[in-house]
Amino acid sequence: MTESTEQKGDGKSRSKILIVDDNAQNAELLQAYLEALEADIRIAVDGVDAMEKIALEEPDIILLDIMMPRMSGFEVCRRVKNNPKTKNILVVIVTALNELGDVERGVDCGADDFLSKPINKLELLTRVKSLLRVRNLQSELERTLSYLEDIEDFGNESHQ
Questions:
Q1: Closest CA to 90 of 52, 138, 158
Q2: Nearest 5°: phi and psi at 19?
Q3: Residues whose CB is less than 8 angstroms from the CB of residue 18 and which lie 6 or more positions away in sequence, other chains included
Q4: CA-closest candidate to residue 137, choices 1, 15, 10, 11
Q5: What is the spatial order of strands in the sheet that 113-116 belongs to?
């Protein structure tokens, strides 16, 4: 498990993934599956721990179990998505729950995707890679919009 944000060869920072699961074996399995990716992977043992880790360093993606002590995955997702600072973090609910009501609750709290346990390695890697591409494009768009706002502000100042 790596805590630092290292630079890739192309100068871009590595993606950050937070795994949230109170079952250590499940978390370690997800971590092992994801080690093929160029990403910094952290583990939180429950929802409260997840919120603390998110406050310290925002991940790009959260792989989130639902049934946990202290704070459920649904509550973590709701808090992340309702916070303007963290609302763009992608949340994948990883759960053994197969009830339609649970999927609806996940959608209602803002989940971006769902994976059912037992986890299929290929499906996990494919979805995470796809979501990381989305996140990187989103970040690039935000940087471009900020740059354009700066140019517009500069242009307005120079005409006054």
A1: 138
A2: -100, 125
A3: 41, 42, 43, 44, 50, 53, 54, 59, 61, 62, 63
A4: 15
A5: 39-44, 15-20, 61-64, 90-95, 113-116
Q: Where are the beta strands (DSSP E) in the chain?
A: 15-20, 39-44, 61-64, 90-95, 113-116
Calpha distance 19→53 (Å, rounded): 11
pLDDT of residue 58: 94
| pLDDT at position 20 | 97
pLDDT at 9: 44
Query: How far is the C-alpha of 52 from the C-alpha of 128, rounded, in Å?
Result: 23
For the domain spanning 15-158, the CATH number is 3.40.50.2300
Residue stretches of the chain with pLDDT short of 70: 1-12, 97-100, 155, 158-160
Q: CB-hemisphere CA count at 13 Å for 66?
A: 22
In this predicted structure, what is the pLDDT of residue 147? 87
- Max distance between CA atoms of the chain, in angstroms, equals 63
Where residue 74 falls (left for φ over 0; alpha for ψ -120 to 50; beta otherwise) is alpha
Distance separating alpha carbons of residues 108 and 110, to the nearest angstrom: 5
Domain ranges (residues) in the chain: 15-158
Q: What is the pLDDT of residue 12?
A: 58
